[in-house]
Amino acid sequence: MKRSVSRRIGVVMVGLLAATGLSMSSAQQAGAATISVPFVCAFNAPSLAASYDLGITNYSVTMTAPEVSDAGSAISVTYDFPSVNASLPFAITGAQVRAEPTIDIRKQSGSALFNATGTGATGSSTTISIGGSVSAPMPVTINVPTTTGAGAPTTFVAGDKLEFVPALFKYTFVAADDANLVGAQVACTPQTSTSYGARTTIAGVVPASPSSNCIAQTGDTTGGAGCATDQIVRLSVLQGQLTQRTYTNSTSTSGSTDGSGTTTPVLGTSNANNNATSVNLGTITSPLAPAPISGTLNDITVSDTRGGSYGWSLTATLTNFTSATGKSMAKSTLTATPGCATATNITAWDYSAPSKTVISGFDSSLVAPGQAAGSSAQSFSGTVSLCTKNTDENLTTGTTGGVYNVTSALTLTVPAFQSADRYTATMTITLA
């Protein structure tokens, strides 16, 4: 589902205005991903005592896994690897190749606990030309055990988040016209082990027939194993919202004065924002040379309680400055240098409160990282990036949720000999 909301802010200068927007994007499947991983590959033919270094290349690896799996159940992970340019100085005829991917299994952002390998189907007989590529049928399924009895080093329990990380990958020659090439391999070793390709959360298993009664003892017996009944405890957490709210930043400008008391011959403008939907850049005399005015965008708080793995972006656009008498000034005269930070326990503002109010009981350690401010001195000749949030999750909550505060310094460069008038533009701030 997608929602959009927009809000207007007046920017006067000379005058500036800004408007805000909000939209919520639909969920993405958390259990599937395509990641780019640098691999060092080599061709090895033991029977020929031959080895060829194929160099390092970034390969796109696609992995899928169920978002949730019951405790004790094996997890099926599918793995897709592209063809490898072997760059061999000879052709291989009658080649039949299969893929043998290995993945490391770890708990969320931890060290690898063990690995698992899958064996793909053998491809049909083909000729690999000189300098040609090696491939095999894809994808390959890898079964990951989750209990000690099935090969895992530990029994995973409800709430554990397992991440599957690309490890050694092999293309193995099962057959070839030259018997010396049977068993030869293209082996690719990843040069990084930080990015996971898929992730699965372990869920608890509910008894098929919960018991509500039992007999612990009979007569005057003592001791024994006792008996147990079951009570299934359930909770549903609904998705929240992705929101933005603007709060007044009344920092005075530099490079202009407060002209709010002037009415003739030109209506003057204050040099401080007086509400959450107005940015006032003050009053200036038409300059002999381009004159910069430094102002401030009103503060913006983005709150994300969608309870999943999502990213978002906050951007701004601007119309040209115009006056009531038809004069104008290009929107490119305004630039923005934004800042974006996670909220602290004393700067986490409650979106639903009637005024600027700290969220009661807020814990900043639960905010997901991955926010980044846009670059400095961005011109409003195009779309300005104020802040982006990637899909990095908080290690405790396992979601991308949080509260983020966005600010921006503004610089308006008034052209030399600009026509005297009061100018207004409309800024639209979009959260998507």
Short description:
The protein has 432 residues and is mostly beta strands. It is built from no helices and 28 strands. Strands 3, 4, 5, 6, 8, 9, 10, 12, 13, 14 and 15 form an 11-stranded mixed beta sheet that branches. Strands 1, 2, 20, 21, 22, 24, 26 and 28 form an 8-stranded mixed beta sheet that branches. Strands 16, 18, 19, 23, 25 and 27 form a 6-stranded antiparallel beta sheet that branches.
Notes on the structure:
This protein folds into 2 domains: 4-24 and 241-431, no CATH class; 32-203, Immunoglobulin-like. Helices cover 0% and strands 44% of the residues. It has no helices and 28 strands. The strands form 4 sheets. Strands 3, 4, 5, 6, 8, 9, 10, 12, 13, 14 and 15 form an 11-stranded mixed β-sheet that branches. Strands 1, 2, 20, 21, 22, 24, 26 and 28 form an 8-stranded mixed β-sheet that branches. Strands 16, 18, 19, 23, 25 and 27 form a 6-stranded antiparallel β-sheet that branches. β3 (32-45) and β4 (50-64) form a beta hairpin. It is flat, with a radius of gyration of 31 Å.
Describe the structure using short key phrases.
432 residues; mainly beta; Immunoglobulin-like; 2 domains; eleven-stranded mixed sheet; eight-stranded mixed sheet; 28 strands; flat; disordered N terminus
Low-confidence stretches: 1-30
Report the order of strands and helices.
EEEEEEEEEEEEEEEEEEEEEEEEEEEE
Portion in helices: under 10%
Give me the secondary-structure category.
Answer: mainly beta
Global morphology:
flat
Average pLDDT confidence is: 90
Quaternary structure classification: single chain
Radius of gyration: 31 Å
Per DSSP, the total helix count is 0
